[in-house]
Structures are given as C-alpha cells and as structure tokens.
Design a protein that fits this description.
This is 7,8-dihydroneopterin aldolase. The protein has about 120 residues and is α+β, with helices and mostly antiparallel strands. The protein contains four helices and four strands; from the N terminus they run βαβαααββ. The chain is elongated, with a radius of gyration of 15 Å.
Length: about 120
C-alpha cells in the first residue's frame, strides 16, 4: 500500500503514570505512516485527492497536546482513531510514540509504543 510518512513530530505534553510527568511534562516524538492509494492524487496533482500533511499534523497535535493520558498505548490508539475519523481515504496507519528519558530505573535512550491499525468497515 502507498503511504504518506510524517516523521519526527515533536510535542511537549504531560502524559505518564508518574505525578512528576503530569506536573513537569516532557517531549514526545511521533512517527506516522498513513496508508491509502496515492494513485489518484499522483495523477491529478490535486490536494483534494490526498491527505493534507498539515491537517494530519494538527489532528495528531490535538491528541498529543490535549488531555493527559497515562500510557503511550492509549495515546497511539487515540491518535489512530482521530486520524480515521478525520480522513475518509485513510485505509490503515502505523503510529509510533517515543518518550525520551523515561523516569524509570535504569538507563534508556527512549521507550516507545507502536501500533498498526486498519479502518473498520
């Protein structure tokens, strides 16, 4: 399937299980693969036949900078749901949300949750 990729989107938000995360906040990085046929927009060169990258970013920003959630898994599910709600051509999406420097014991560069969802017909 064809894809539009939005890579390395950065958001400052207040998600997490620990109170410090909810109070201080931290950076989150989101990568998204939006799967749908690019044939029609590729032939027409018309934005109305595609998914606007800026609009997709705003949908994801609304979730990421919105209501705090405990789990990356919940964030990813909500992002996917909002993308399907917003863009009827979207057939499937892969969402990866990365949290750098998680406040858990040990040494980590980051932790992440990645989901792949297909549109329910």
């Amino acid at each position: 399937m064809d894809k539009i990729l939005l890579n390395g989107m950065e958001f400052y938000a207040y998600h997490g299980v620990f109170q410090e995360e909810k109070t201080l906040g931290q950076r989150f990085y989101v990568d998204a693969e939006l799967e749908f046929s690019l044939k029609k927009p590729g032939q027409s060169d018309d934005m109305n036949d595609s998914i606007d990258y800026g609009e997709a970013y705003e949908v994801m920003r609304g979730v990421m900078e919105g209501r705090p959630m405990n789990l990356l898994e919940s964030l990813a599910e909500t992002v996917a749901s909002e993308l399907f709600r917003s863009f009827s051509p979207l057939n499937a999406c892969r969402i990866r949300i990365t949290k750098t420097d998680p406040p858990i014991p040990g040494h980590y560069r980051s932790v992440a949750a990645e989901i792949f969802r297909e549109r329910d017909e």
